[in-house]
Write a structure and sequence with these properties.
Blueprint (H helix, E strand, L loop, with lengths): L2 H26 L4 H29 L9 H27 L3 H44 L1
Helix pairs in contact: 1-2, 1-4, 2-3, 3-4
């Protein structure tokens, strides 16, 4: 994947994730879309920054080839990332939405579970659509010759 495509992939992922999270939270809470929009943009921004910081630190402790990391190391990474993210985002959600920490925690857990499933589906679909487009381009190039 080129750098431009990686940026496209990341932006598309985030735009859809934020939009779908706002819709879900609108359905399950009493908060207005405007409040949820700002909150989810803040959460997504925190998640991207935390992702860079956490993974830089994690890579210092778990050296070697990334593709050879054990299941245990990957579980530690996910739990560490998500746990740290909750520490940052729960107070922000509570403050921005004027709710208690418990309500913000429940909402954040819901978003986290949704994003986990969404990431799986999004990347599966993106990879398969990308492969189909590349095959189509390759076929068109062969036919044009």
């Amino acid at each position: 994947m080129s750098t431009i495509e990686r940026v496209f992939h990341a932006v598309l992922f985030e735009v859809l994730a934020i939009s779908l999270s706002i819709i879900g939270l609108t359905i399950f809470t009493h908060h207005p879309v405007s409040s949820l929009s700002g909150t989810m943009i803040a959460v997504a921004t925190i998640a991207m920054i935390w992702n860079m910081i956490f993974n830089a630190i994690f890579d210092r402790f778990f050296t070697g080839k990334r593709e050879e990391r054990s299941l245990k190391a990957r579980c530690v990474q996910v739990i560490g990332f998500e746990g740290g993210l909750l520490l940052f985002t729960v107070p922000i959600m509570a403050w921005l939405l004027s709710v208690g920490l418990w309500e913000a925690f429940i909402m954040d857990i819901g978003v986290t579970l949704f994003i986990t499933a969404y990431a799986f589906v999004f990347n599966y679909c993106y990879d398969h659509l990308r492969a189909a487009l590349l095959r189509r381009r390759q076929l068109a190039t062969v036919q044009a010759q």
